[in-house]
Amino acid sequence: MQRIKNPKMNSTINVTPLVDVVLVLLIIFMVIAPRLNLDQAITLPETQRPPDKPQTERQIVVSITADGQLHVNDQPVGREQLPQELLAQAAAIGEAQVVIKGDARLSFGHVQKTMFEIEAAGFKDVGLIARQSEGS
Amino acid sequence: MGAQSQDSGGGYASEINITPLVDVVLVLLIIFMVIVPVMMRGYDVSIPGEAQVAPPTDERAEQIVLHIEDASCSIVEPPQGPGLPAGCVVHINDTPVTVERLAGEVAAVYAERSGDDRVLFLAAQPALNYEYVMRILDAARSQVQDLKIGLVTAG
Question: pTM of the full predicted structure?
Answer without folding.
Answer: 0.73
